[in-house]
Amino acid sequence: MTTAKTLVKCSVSNCHYWGEQNLCRADEILIEIDKHSGNAFKEEYAEEMAGQGHHDYAGNSSATCCLTFKPNE
């Protein structure tokens, strides 16, 4: 069974996953609260933050950030 992908729009054109019409082409997306944005993660997907039991609360969209970002080389 194939599951439909969620359409993700992103305007950060210097991201490795950025596609035409501002479409994100990443297979996975990790969005975290800004409180964690200064942490150094091992992978672009920051899998250590996405594990079971890790939950945070954001009051609005401006308190979040995309940790999937990977700059173009």
UniProtKB/TrEMBL annotation:
<feature type="domain" description="DUF1540">
    <location>
        <begin position="8"/>
        <end position="69"/>
    </location>
</feature>
<protein>
    <recommendedName>
        <fullName>DUF1540 domain-containing protein</fullName>
    </recommendedName>
</protein>
<dbReference type="InterPro" id="IPR011437">
    <property type="entry name" value="DUF1540"/>
</dbReference>
<dbReference type="Pfam" id="PF07561">
    <property type="entry name" value="DUF1540"/>
</dbReference>
